What we know:
Layout: H1 7-14, E1 26-37, E2 40-51, E3 55-59, H2 66-73, E4 81-86, E5 89-90, H3 95-101, E6 102-105, H4 117-127, H5 132-145, H6 161-172, E7 179-183, H7 191-207, E8 211-216, H8 219-225, E9 228-233, E10 236-241, H9 243-248, E11 254-260, H10 267-272, E12 277-282, E13 287-292, H11 295-308, E14 313-320, H12 323-331, H13 337-345
Parallel strand pairs: 3-8, 3-9, 6-7, 7-8
Antiparallel strand pairs: 1-2, 1-4, 4-5, 9-10, 11-13, 11-14, 12-13
Helix pairs in contact: 4-5, 4-6, 6-7
Bound molecules: adenosine-5'-triphosphate (ATP) and magnesium ion (MG).
Amino acid sequence: MSADTNPDSVVSAQNGKTSVEVGAPFAIEVDHVVKKYGDFTAVDDVSFSVSDGEIFGLLGPNGAGKSTLIRMMTTLIPITSGKARIAGHDVAKEPDAVRRTIGVIPQALTSDLDLTVEENLQIYAKLYDVPAEERKRSIDELLELVDLTKWRDAQTKTLSGGMRRRLEIARGLVHHPKIFFLDEPTTGLDPVSRVAVWEMLGNIKAQRQLTILITTHYMDEADRLCHRIAIVDHGKLVALDTPMALKASVPGSNVIEVQFENAPEDWEQRLRGLSEVTSVQHEGAGMFRILTGNGSRTTTELVEMAAHSGLGVKSLSVQNTTLDDVFVHFTGRQLRDELVKAYAFTMPQRPGLQP
Length: 355
Ligand SMILES: Nc1ncnc2c1ncn2[C@@H]1O[C@H](COP(=O)(O)OP(=O)(O)OP(=O)(O)O)[C@@H](O)[C@H]1O
Ligand SMILES: [Mg+2]
């Protein structure tokens, strides 16, 4: 599948998700957006739209251009060419209207360590002119939502990284934004804290009418949280669809690992003849690894063929294609942490930092 920027396909991609209304107005519209730093193009002609109420993921390795995209959408840096509209407001022409509609969690932790949890929230609420009564109600509700009520008087410097992240998520919502941008909210957190943040975002989404745009380089995070995912690489959008459709677009969408008792000589050949099989690898001791476009159909035929031939099946597992396979398919590279680091290390020289 190629980069998908056609509004028709965007709508059809949403059909599989019951929680996003097809034909809902767009909360975010990014239209042929380019960001250049000198001669270097950090974001290269990216277009996509996000519907009201959708959770949309930008997935890509270090340096892909995810934060640059968020900074442009949230009015922090100018767009070199193209247009972005947030809740219908042009970010270049109506930045104040955009800022009133959005909540932003930047990639770096930015809560004030010398203030208490509640003070961090109070300051933001005051900055956004939330009236005093509403402030108290909103802060109580948010502390509950992010499970920090009993830490409200604790100094922020005493919190763990995961708790601090949760505080910052609460802070980003204190003025009731309609559209919430989160830049790598779980990077650097341990697996338990990551899951806690995911659950919390689910609770928030259930309680508030929010559109969420989240960036990540974790496949499992994008898969679990997002209605649709845009894969970005070297500043370009290389694929856009639902996690399920992205996985289905990779040839051979299931892996079957099966071990037979006393498999005959021609067994590998016969496995190749089963429906939808794209490859068969004999791994010794009666163990075969089969790639197939239809795991359930191949498995049914395989079990019938074994029974018909009087062959026992010692073990059998069917796994789905993961988003890791999707990333490799579209970019030719793995998106694992160690490879991400190696990739970042070998990035070509960039011009100095510029606004
Ligand atoms: N102010 C700047 N001046 C020059 N180059 C920049 C600037 N900001 C970002 N870049 C470059 O633009 C590219 C995209 O950076 P960006 O921070 O958007 O990537 P990212 O996808 O958010 O990566 P990460 O996962 O590391 O946060 C990188 O090559 C980066 O070095
Ligand atoms: Mg970033």
